[in-house]
Amino acid sequence: ETGVTQSPTHLIKTRGQQVTLRCSSQSGHNTVSWYQQALGQGPQFIFQYYREEENGRGNFPPRFSGLQFPNYSSELNVNALELDDSALYLCASTRKDGETQYFGPGTRLLVL
Amino acid sequence: AQRVTQPEKLLSVFKGAPVELKCNYSYSGSPELFWYVQYSRQRLQLLLRHISRESIKGFTADLNKGETSFHLKKPFAQEEDSAMYYCALSTYNTDKLIFGTGTRLQVFP
C-alpha cells in the first residue's frame, strides 16, 4: 500500500507568509498524521486527524493547523512562516489505531 | 517524557559483515517499537514492528525492556541494505510516532 500522495513536492516561501500543504490518503484510511522533518533529524509529530477532528497534537504552536475532509484528503496550514519552519513535511495515513502508518513522499518547504 | 535515541549517525560495513543499529528508548509505560527505513529517493516505510516478531529482509529486532533497547540486527549485510534507518516508538493506544534521529547504513562491496 503506497497510495499516499502529497502536493506540492517543493515550495519556497518568505518569512511571514502562509502555506497550505496537501495530502491524499488511501481510500478507507480515516486517520492522518502530519510530521515535520528538519534536516538531519527524525520526523516530529505535529498532529493527527481522525474522522475530520484533531485527535492529538505534538509540541507545535497554534499557527500550525490542519483539516481533514471526507474524501480522505487533508491539509496542513502554517501561518506566519518562520525560517525554522524550513523542513520536509510528511503525512501518514492508517485505517485505524494500531495499524501500519503509510507515509507520503513529503513536501519540502523552504522559508527565506 | 518519551524519547528515542540512535547514537550512531553513520554506520559503515562491508558486504557480508554483521550489522547492528542501536536504538534506546525512554518511556515509563509499555511502548510499541518500530524500525522504519528510507531507501534513496524513496518514501519512509515500515521495516518491522516488535509485536509482529517478524524477520524482514533478514533483519530482526528484539525488545529488551530491562535495557530499554530495540537494536536492529542482520547477520550478513547486503549492498541493497544501504539506507537511512529510523527507530520509533508509539505509546499505549495512540498512533503518534516518536522517532530517533536516524542512522545511515552504508554497505560497501
Short overview:
The complex is a heterodimer of chains A (about 110) and B (about 110). Chain A is mainly beta and about 110 residues long.
Biggest sheet character of chain A:
7 strands, mixed
Oligomer: heterodimer
Low-confidence parts of chain B, pLDDT < 50 over ≥5 residues? none
Over all CA atoms, what is the radius of gyration of chain B?
13 Å
Q: Number of helical segments of chain A?
A: 0
DSSP strand count of chain B: 11
- Inertia-based shape of chain A: globular
Q: What is the H/E order of chain B?
A: EEEEEEEEEEE
Instruction: Give the fraction of residues assigned to helices of chain A.
Output: under 10%
Gap between N and C termini of chain A, in Å?
A: 35 Å
Q: How would you describe this structure to a colleague?
A:
The complex is a heterodimer of chains A (112) and B (109). With 112 residues, chain A is an all-beta fold. Chain A is 0% helix and 52% strand. Chain A has no helices and eleven strands. In chain A, a hairpin with a 7-residue loop joins strand 9 and strand 10. In chain B, 0% of the residues lie in helices and 44% in strands. Chain B contains no helices and eleven strands. Chain B has strands spanning 3-5, 10-14, 19-21, 24-26, 32-38, 45-49, 60-61, 72-74, 83-90, 97-99, 103-108. In chain B, the strands form three sheets. In chain B, strands 2, 5, 6, 9, 10 and 11 form a six-stranded mixed beta sheet that branches. A three-stranded antiparallel beta sheet of chain B has the order 3-8-7, with no helix packed on it. Chain B is globular, with a radius of gyration of 13 Å. The model of chain B has no long low-confidence stretch (mean pLDDT 92).
SSE inventory with pairings:
The complex is a heterodimer of chains A (112) and B (109).
Chain A: E1 5-7, E2 10-13, E3 19-24, E4 31-37, E5 44-50, E6 53-57, E7 64-68, E8 73-78, E9 87-94, E10 102-103, E11 107-111
Parallel strand pairs in A: 2-11
Antiparallel strand pairs in A: 1-3, 3-8, 4-5, 4-9, 5-6, 7-8, 9-10, 9-11
Chain B: E1 3-5, E2 10-14, E3 19-21, E4 24-26, E5 32-38, E6 45-49, E7 60-61, E8 72-74, E9 83-90, E10 97-99, E11 103-108
Parallel strand pairs in B: 2-11
Antiparallel strand pairs in B: 1-4, 3-8, 5-6, 5-9, 7-8, 9-10, 9-11
